[in-house]
């Protein structure tokens, strides 16, 4: 069965989406003449500032291009749906945001992205642009703790990129921006739950099968297998499962502070996200952990997949400052 | 077949959602002790200001409570899913936001809402609070032009409430606030398209049937019948159908200005909304109409329904000022 989408030709979906984004957000972002898949902040890049280039496959909107703007990312390289951008748009983004202080590459830890961003870094090295790379690996379910370097990056990207973008905007050195980005990633934990598959614009076929009463804890944002497939549980039970998993690694002490993100994978509406958020806050209160700030909504999606993820960032004073730092992006702002 | 939702007991969904909203947005909104379905802005209401009370059924989040905050609505009365709030929370909201200059009631034109808000207005009149009511009727498909008073309010609420909230925040008189609210409604046009039904938390049954290749232009946000059920078309064709319908009534002249809202009804993702937005802007450019500002995202939903709506507000200088006026709400802000 073909799924229903409001699109024209499937192969045109990404470029037509970009057209619509430029139409809506021309005051914040622009597209480079040199590469139509390079989206650059109008007000972010400047001389002496470390540039922040993010990117990845399409289909996760508002990730990644929604987070391009002053105070967060300087540019995003756009891939096809669920596919890494090739080196070219990454290279053009890098050149466009280089302010002479080096460029930070940040993206989720997926093989295709690593290959293409690394290739871009080699190319721009010939133009004397120094690139450092920090991969996000916040998805607890994607590999065991002793293989943390194999974990994927998911919705926690939002906190990790936000912290790094703030460091860059504060005109810190490349060393300092890299250090803060690594710390942000080390202290960010995400677990998701999927209730349905999604379908790609080109095929309109579901990307996996799931029973009418099933859910899968820990499923990845491209349908990568999670920890367990089981009957659908209540919001509180699902949230507890996720929070237990996060607490198991984060081990927050009484009085510690966190930032909370409850994220929709696509078609799960705000009502359900806020019901989950209620339970997240209950659990944090019980443990004596202070919530510094909460975001609830769609930050990293998988097209129209039903499901949600919960992310906690274990704050210290430095990361708190980065999270609170103002930013003004096409699809997100902090005042 | 029961639909999948991340909830606990269906009957608790609305109150648990409100708990989660208060946990996330306690700096912006509060719940009244006198009625747990009354959500009030922390920073909006003040002496001498016309109070703006909005409200309606749950399941349309971020409508309506997401638009409570300084510069927009002072309070929202919360109903059960797809059901009007009873008079009590409306009355308590009214008393809480009354600054001695009168209170404006604004909500979509649905029989249950009209009955309950009118009853509340009668009750608070005994406390010498003067209430004026402006119903939103932006849904073109819901009744013919010569019966415009029968039309329902849908996503255009966002623009209409925004304009009225700005007028109130500018400390204009009740007469002026009412006049601007009516003008905002008169100049706002919405048409939606539905691709799937949704299901209520209590029943988890689809609220109507729709074929695998069907869409319905003009369907209401509770599944009210639209203008026509037909095979799914391309994004451009759907957008053209909607824009033609809006242009037919708005009749914008060359050089006129509009605000654009492309709204998801629930599970339709940003990619598809931006593809529609691209076509909206193409059509406006072709006609020589200037776009003052564009919003794309979820502003008035129907739980997890697939589909979208397009709203245009025909701006004049006064409405432009109201749309640009800053506001700071739980789920929306303008700087």
From TrEMBL, chains A, B:
Alphabetized Pfam families for the sequence: Dak1
Domain DhaK: 9-332
InterPro entries reported for this sequence: DhaK_dom, Dihydroxyacetone_Kinase
GO CC terms, sorted: cytosol
Keyword rRNA-binding: no
One annotated GO molecular function: ATP binding
Keywords of this entry: ATP-binding, Kinase, Nucleotide-binding, Transferase
Gene Ontology annotations of biological process type: glycerol catabolic process
PANTHER family: TRIOKINASE/FMN CYCLASE, TRIOKINASE_FMN CYCLASE
Name used for this protein in its record: Dihydroxyacetone kinase subunit DhaK
Organism annotation: Metarhizobium album
């Amino acid at each position: 069965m073909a799924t229903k989408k409001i699109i024209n030709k499937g192969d045109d979906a990404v470029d037509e989406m970009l057209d619509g984004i430029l139409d809506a957000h021309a005051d914040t972002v622009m597209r480079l003449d040199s590469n139509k898949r390079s989206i650059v902040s109008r007000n972010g890049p400047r001389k002496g500032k470390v540039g922040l280039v993010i990117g990845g496959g399409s289909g996760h909107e508002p990730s990644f291009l929604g987070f391009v703007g002053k105070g967060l990312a300087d540019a995003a390289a756009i891939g096809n749906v669920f596919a890494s951008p090739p080196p070219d748009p990454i290279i053009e983004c890098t050149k466009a945001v280089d302010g002479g202080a080096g460029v930070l590459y940040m993206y989720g830890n997926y093989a295709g992205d690593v290959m293409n961003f690394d290739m871009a870094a080699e190319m721009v090295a010939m133009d004397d642009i120094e690139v450092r790379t920090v991969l996000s690996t916040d998805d607890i379910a994607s590999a065991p703790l002793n293989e943390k370097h194999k974990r994927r990056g998911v919705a926690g990207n939002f906190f990790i990129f936000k912290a790094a973008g703030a460091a860059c905007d504060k005109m810190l050195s490349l060393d300092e921006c890299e250090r803060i980005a690594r710390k942000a990633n080390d202290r960010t934990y995400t677990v998701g739950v999927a209730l349905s598959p999604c379908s790609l614009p080109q095929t309109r076929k579901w990307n996996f099968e799931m029973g009418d009463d099933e859910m899968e804890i820990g499923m990845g944002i491209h349908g990568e297998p999670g920890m367990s497939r089981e009957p659908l549980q209540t919001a509180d039970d699902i949230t507890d499962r996720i929070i237990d998993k996060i607490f198991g690694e984060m081990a927050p002490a009484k009085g510690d502070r966190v930032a909370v993100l409850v994220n929709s994978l696509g078609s799960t509406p705000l009502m359900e996200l806020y019901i989950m958020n209620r339970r997240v806050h209950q659990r944090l209160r019980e443990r004596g952990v202070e919530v510094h700030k909460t975001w609830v909504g769609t930050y990293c999606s998988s097209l129209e997949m039903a499901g949600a993820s919960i992310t906690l960032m274990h704050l210290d004073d430095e990361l708190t400052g980065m999270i609170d730092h103002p930013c003004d992006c096409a699809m997100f702002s902090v005042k």
